[in-house]
Amino acid sequence: MLTTNPFDDDKLREECGVFGVFGSPDAAALTALGLHALQHRGQEAAGIVSYDGEDFPAHRASGQVGDIFGSEDVIKSLQGHRAIGHVRYSTAGGKGLRNVQPLFADFEFGGLAIAHNGNLTNALAVRERLVKRGSIFQSTSDTETFIHLIATSLYEKIVDRLIDAIRQVEGAYSLVVMTQKKLIGVRDPLGVRPLVLGKLNDSYILSSETVGLDIVGAEFIRDVEPGEIVEITDDGLKSIKPFKPVKSRFCIFEHVYFARPDSIVEGTSVYDVRKNIGRELALESGVDADVVVPIPDSGVPSALGYAEASGVPFELGIIRNHYVGRTFIEPTDQIRHLGVKLKHNANPGKLKGKRVILVDDSIVRGTTSTKIVDLVRQAGAAEVHMRIASPPTTNPCFYGVDTPSKEKLMAANHDIESMAKIIGVDSLAFVTIDGLYRAAGLTGRDNDSPAFCDACFTGDYPIRLVDHQAENKDRKLSQLVERQSA
């Protein structure tokens, strides 16, 4: 019996999610709820650190939030009026409990816990400089770079040390930081990664998305601004802006796939943007058909928009099984090859004899698209046309998304006609980059000054790729490999 992944998810994996609470006796429980709402941003591991007035109780583990924090005893062990939490995929540093956040360290000013969404593009270069000065790293996560920069800073105040640290790093990041007296939120100068501020009675909340506020009943106050530090203490909230203002470059893939559709990001409804993308697809690449079918769940809003704009009926021609995890015990290779049916199953009554338009959010490697098209054809579809609610993904992301290398990205190695043949569809079309921008409320992409980070589609990287371009970019970090007990 082998433990395998029976279906290839073939998606860009969400970066991570962060959450923080200041000023509530139920801080840990609220944080666990917030992480539940952010579970889509990371399903590999989760952790919470609280502060009880003397110590920093912590609980971190591999797995999903409900399994890790479903016990009343665990929540009771995380006492205190403030807490921060994190859900993750291993976008930098790899797997292993030592990389599960929040990370914690004891400084001369006391304890500090930190959780990070994003990726530093010069983490290796900074790390090597710190190691030469005597720093001893315990993890391979780029988040630990912040801890060592804070430790070696010559400034006295914690916030000044943090500013000193973030001035030395490059990349995309949203941080939540907790000390004995403070909860601090930080966004990178370009605002690539999201972070919002809310309030629940007298408590302040920080969350990667507004859905984290919704689940605990908190009021949305505002987005933390690009390059802003919000410092929360018993005296209230203070805003610090240590960087010179620059034009923001929020990650447009948050609108396409990463964020939950019921989130509001940068003042815009994710659901509305996704429906608008579907409308743009219908205008740009409409085709005669009998039915519009989403590839669930992320393709649903765009398929609805396509159906409304085209007048072609919307149907759930593919049903998703929501009770399949990422691993499965299987006895034979034959069963493993049936894996796609564990997650998606055709609804033959809505497909047989029909000219079908399949709508999905993206194509990464193309493996799942091929399997689903085959599923639809086996159900009797007369024609299969695929429409994608994002431009072709031709470049990897270095800002906190687990992206395959360029040679594994289908659109980087094939033109659209070739992709259509490989996937097995009668036609294939992607929304244009201008159409994507129009769906987000703009007139199109300003190539001289884009409003979003869209590097995965355009190759226009707004932040230097220091480590990627370095001669030693492929150097493997040393790490202690521990056997986890059952």
UniProtKB/TrEMBL annotation:
- The superkingdom listed in its UniProt entry is Bacteria
- Which Pfam families does the protein's record reference? GATase_7, Pribosyltran
Molecular function as annotated in GO:
4 iron, 4 sulfur cluster binding; amidophosphoribosyltransferase activity; magnesium ion binding
Q: Does the keyword Glycosyltransferase apply?
A: yes
The catalytic activity of this protein is classed by the Enzyme Commission as: 2.4.2.14
Q: Which cofactor does it need?
A: Mg(2+); [4Fe-4S] cluster
Q: Which GO terms describe its biological process?
A: 'de novo' IMP biosynthetic process; purine nucleobase biosynthetic process
Q: Which residues form the active site?
A: C16 (nucleophile)
Q: Which controlled-vocabulary keywords does the entry list? A: 4Fe-4S, Glutamine amidotransferase, Glycosyltransferase, Iron, Iron-sulfur, Magnesium, Metal-binding, Purine biosynthesis, Transferase
Residues that, per the record, bind [4Fe-4S] cluster: C251, C397, C453, C456
Question: Catalytic activity, per the record?
Answer: 5-phospho-beta-D-ribosylamine + L-glutamate + diphosphate = 5-phospho-alpha-D-ribose 1-diphosphate + L-glutamine + H2O
Pathway per its UniProt entry is:
Purine metabolism; IMP biosynthesis via de novo pathway; N(1)-(5-phospho-D-ribosyl)glycinamide from 5-phospho-alpha-D-ribose 1-diphosphate: step 1/2
InterPro entries xrefs = GATase_2_dom, Ntn_hydrolases_N, PRTase-like, PRTase_dom, PurF, PurF_N
Q: How is the cofactor bound?
A: Binds 1 Mg(2+) ion per subunit. Binds 1 [4Fe-4S] cluster per subunit.
Glutamine amidotransferase type-2 domain location is 16-235
Q: Which residues bind Mg(2+)?
A: S298, D360, D361
Family as reported in the entry's similarity comment: In the C-terminal section; belongs to the purine/pyrimidine phosphoribosyltransferase family.
Q: What does this protein's UniProt record list under function?
A: Catalyzes the formation of phosphoribosylamine from phosphoribosylpyrophosphate (PRPP) and glutamine.
NCBIfam families noted in UniProt: purF
Against PANTHER family, the record matches this protein to:
AMIDOPHOSPHORIBOSYLTRANSFERASE (PTHR11907)
User: What name does the UniProt record give this protein?
Assistant: Amidophosphoribosyltransferase
Q: Which organism is it from?
A: Thalassospira xiamenensis M-5 = DSM 17429
